[in-house]
Amino acid sequence: MNDILESLEKWRERDEQIGVATVIETWGSAPRPVGSKLAATLGGGIAGSVSAGCVEGAVIEESQEVVASGQPRLLTYGVADDEAWEVGLACGGTIKVFVEPFSALDGVYASFKHYLEARQPMAVVSVLDGPPDHLNRKLIVLPDGRTEGDLDVPGQAGEIVAAALDFLEREEGGTLELEGGTSLFVEVYPPVPRLIVVGATHIADALVSMGNAAGFDTIVVDPRAAFATEERFPHAAELIREWPQQVLPEMGLDRSAYVVVLTHDPKFDDPTLQVALRSEARYVGALGSRRTNEKRLGRLRKSGLTEEELARLHAPVGLPLGGRSPAEIAISIMAEIVQVRNGVSTPQLALE
Predict the structure, then answer these.
(1) How many CB atoms are located within 10 Å of the residue 63 CB?
(2) Chain segment 207-230, per-residue pLDDT in tens
C-alpha cells in the first residue's frame, strides 16, 4: 500500500474517482505476491502493480467498471483462461484479484493512513462476497485486538478478530469463509523488519544499503565513535554509539528483529550474542570462519547458553555464495536473511 499512498492522496485532493485492485491469492509462478495493489482513476491515473505488467490492462478496465457501478469484483487470471493467455500469464502463474471502489475505504481511511504512516502493525479485513449490506466495508484489527471500521457481522466478530490476529502473527494475508456465505480477505501490515548491525565495518556499510533496498529499518550499533559516524553510514535509519549489550535489551528484540554481528571480536560478539540468542529475534548471525565459530560456541556454552539457543545462531553468517569482498559478503548475508524471513529452508553450508 505504501507504494500507492502518495498517488491516492493526490487523487483524493482532486476528487478523482478511484478503483483499487489487490492480489488476494496466487498459484504457480504468479509475478506479484498477495497484498500487491494497483490503483487507477477514471481520468487515466495509474499507480502500483498486481502482475508486473501481465494483466494490468485488463484489471484497469475492470477497475473503471467497478468505480462506475460501485460494486466490487473478484477476478481470476490463469493459464487455463483464454483471456489470461492474451494478457500474459501463459507461464503458468494464476492470480486472484479483488477490485473495489476506493470509497470502500471511506469508513477507515483516516485511521488506516495514520497507522500506516506510524508503521503500526495491523490487519485490514475486506468483504469479498456476501450480503449487499456487508460489501464495501472494512475492519481494522490492531495487535491488541482493538478494532475500528464499519464492518459488522453479527455473532461472528470474535471469529473475525481471532482469524485476523492469526494472519497478522504469521505475517501473511489470506481468505476467511464465514458461516452464512460471507467471504473475507484479511490483509496484513506486520511490524517493519529491523536489521540491527553490530559493528560499523565495511561489510556493515554495504549491508545497510541492501537492507534499506529490501525494506528494512537499518540500525548500526558500535561504541567506537571513530567507526560509527554519519559520514560512513549516511543511509542508516539509526546510529547508536553504545555497547550492544547495553542497548539491545531496550530495543525489544521480537520477530521483527534481524541481528547481524560483524565485529569479529569476542568483547563485542559474545555479550551481543548472549542477549540476541535469548531474545525473540527472528535471525541472529555472526561473522567468522568455522574455526572461529567453534571457539565462539565454546565461550557461549560456558556463559550459560543452551544448545537450543546456540542452534539459532547463523554462523558463519550468510549463504555460501563464495564471495570475498565486503559487498559480496553483504549479499550473502542479506540473501540468508531474506530466506529466513520468507520461511524457505535449504541445507546450510558453512562459509570457509
Answers:
(1) 27
(2) 999 999 999 999 999 999 999 999
- Residue 346: the pLDDT is 59
Would residue 47 be called left, alpha or beta, if left means φ above 0 and alpha means ψ between -120 and 50 degrees?
beta
What is the pLDDT, as a whole number, of residue 81? 47
Please choose, from the candidates 54, 88, 60, 82, the residue with its C-alpha nearest in 3D space to the C-alpha of residue 73: 60
Amino acid letter, 348: Q
Asked if 103 contacts 70 with a C-beta cutoff of 8 angstroms, the reply is yes
Segment 112-129, tens digit of pLDDT: 999 998 889 999 999 999
CA distance 196 to 217: 8
Which part of the chain has CATH 3.40.50.720?
Answer: 194-341
Residue 206 and residue 213: Cα distance in Å, rounded?
11
CATH code, residues 194-341:
3.40.50.720
Eight-class DSSP state of 191: P
The x, y and z cell numbers of residue 128, run together, are: 469479498
- Tell whether pTM > 0.70: yes
- Could you give phi then psi for residue 56, rounded to 5 degrees? -55, -45
Cα gap 251→238, rounded to integer Å = 12
Separation of alpha carbons 120 and 190, rounded Å: 8
Residues 221-267 pLDDT 10s = 999 999 999 999 999 999 999 999 999 999 999 999 999 999 888 99
Q: What's the burial of 79, exposed, middle or buried (CB within 10 Å: 0-12/13-18/19+)?
A: middle
Q: What phi, psi does 58 have (nearest 5°)?
A: -65, -40
The residues that bridge with 240 in the sheet, in sequence order, are 221
